[in-house]
Each structure stands twice: as C-alpha cells, then as structure tokens.
Automatic annotation (TrEMBL):
Domain DUF6834: from-to ranges: 101-230
Protein name: Uncharacterized protein
Lineage, uppermost ranks: Archaea, Methanobacteriati, Methanobacteriota, Archaeoglobi, Archaeoglobales
Family matches, as InterPro entries: AF2093-like, AF2093-like_C_sf, Af2093-N, DUF6834, DUF6846
Start and end residues of each DUF6846 domain: 6-99
Length: 249
C-alpha cells in the first residue's frame, strides 16, 4: 500500500492542473511514476501491471489515497473516453489538450510490446528478466531497458540520471521514432551532455520497420553493434546537431 500511495502522489504531481484526461494518459504517467519511485529496484511485470490497474482505479473510480486526483466523470467523444474532475465543465481547450496527451500516450502503449520484441532480438543470446526495467544479461555484460517517449525522457531526466547511477550495469532508455525529427534534435541540444555525463544511453526503435538505432551512446559489448540498422547514427548526430538546431529554442 505504501508503494501505491507514493506512486499515486507522483502521478497526481505529473497531472497537477489537468482537469480532463484519459485512462491511457494515466497509464503512461503511472509507468513514469513507478520508475521515479522504484528507480533500479526490480519490479516484476505482474506487479507493475497490478500497480497500473490500481492507479487507474484510484484516479477514476475509488480513491485509494488522499493524495490521489479523482476523475470521476466520463465523457465520450468520437470513441475516445475522456475522464474529468466532478467540479469541472470541460472546455474545448481542455479536451484538445487531453486529446493531444491521449495520442502521445497511445503511441507509447501501442509501441511497448513491439519495442520489447525488437530489443529481445537485438540482445539475442542474452538472458532476459522481465519487469519495469527489462534486464538483459550475458557474462560480464548487463543492460537494463526502460521504454518511454523522447519528450517524457526530457521531463524525467533527473529520474533517469538516478536510475543510471543505481543500476548495476548499462542503463538504456528505448523510445519510438517520432513524426518530427525536431523532437530528437531539440532533446539532443538541451540534454545530450547530461545524458553522457550520467552514463546512460538512448536508443530509438522504428516500430513499423522493427529496427533499432543508437541516438546517444553505444553498448560496451561491441558485438551488439551489428544489431543496429545504422550503427553510425549517434556519431553523425553528435557531429551535425549544432548546425541543425540553431533556431529551435
């Protein structure tokens, strides 16, 4: 119960000021909140999914903590079920913002299983331990993969730095490709030095092609390099980003 209470508190902080949401956004923020709470501690897949369900139930049905937001009302528009706080009368802007977050959240939720399959193939020959952080190990090498969106990685950067410090191995954040390359270039210009200093890596999965490429950082097991579609991507971005992002900020 203490774990759930702390995770609910973090989810509510992430969604502070948001009066309209969707279950998909709640789930996405539950993953982020669990990483913030557990850091590199092992959390089984079953435990993780149970906690996500309990977070959704608390925010949408029966609150499990006084720290929990409560989206008790339901509004369906064009097959999207929105949830909103009882005292809120959703405005057009509220719904537009909630729909934007819904699309981002669906992108992650729809991509996670494929990203796991792609990393499983990439780490062929490694033992797999499923969980909030998916752990791959082989001999002296050990990798922990967490699945997220590039924008969320920027917002949660301090958390990822703490995970990288505490994880007994190489920590990798795996994200799906985006329609706009500028999201990655902006991230690189703002955060790449912090990521490198913290010692973790960010790799990108093309969900449609089921391929993976390095964005920031390479594995110490050089035999893994052959698993990237284009192993030189991270080096190319590192050398070219200054020219491409001059006017982004």
């Amino acid at each position: 119960m203490d774990d759930l209470r702390e995770i609910l508190k973090k989810v509510s902080e992430l969604m502070a000021g948001r009066e309209v949401t969707t279950v998909d956004e709640i789930k996405r923020n539950a993953y982020r909140a669990m990483l913030s709470h557990f850091l590199s501690r092992h959390v089984s897949r079953d435990r993780m999914e149970n906690l996500v369900s309990e977070v959704v139930e608390s925010l949408c049905e029966v609150p499990a903590s006084i720290n929990s937001l409560h989206y008790s009302e339901k509004l369906e528009i064009e097959n999207v079920a929105f949830r909103h706080i009882h005292t809120c009368k959703p405005t057009e802007e509220d719904l537009e913002n909630a729909y934007e977050e819904y699309l981002k959240s669906r992108k992650l939720i729809d991509s996670i299983e494929i990203m796991m399959e792609v990393t499983d193939v990439f780490f062929n020959g490694y033992a797999i331990e499923d969980g909030l952080i998916r752990v791959y190990s082989k001999g002296k090498y050990k990798y922990g993969a967490f699945y997220s969106l590039i924008d969320d990685v920027g917002e949660d950067l301090e958390i990822h730095e703490r995970v990288a410090t505490s994880f007994d191995g190489e920590y990798v954040v795996v994200v799906p490709t985006e329609n706009e390359l500028t999201r990655f270039l902006r991230f690189f210009s703002r955060y790449s030095e912090r990521v490198k200093k913290a010692g973790f890596k960010i790799w990108v999965v093309n969900v449609e092609e089921r391929t993976i490429d390095p964005f920031i950082g390479y594995p110490r097991d050089f035999l893994l390099l052959k698993g990237f579609k284009n192993p030189r991507v991270a080096t190319q971005i590192n050398s070219l980003w200054r020219v491409q992002v001059e006017e982004m900020d």
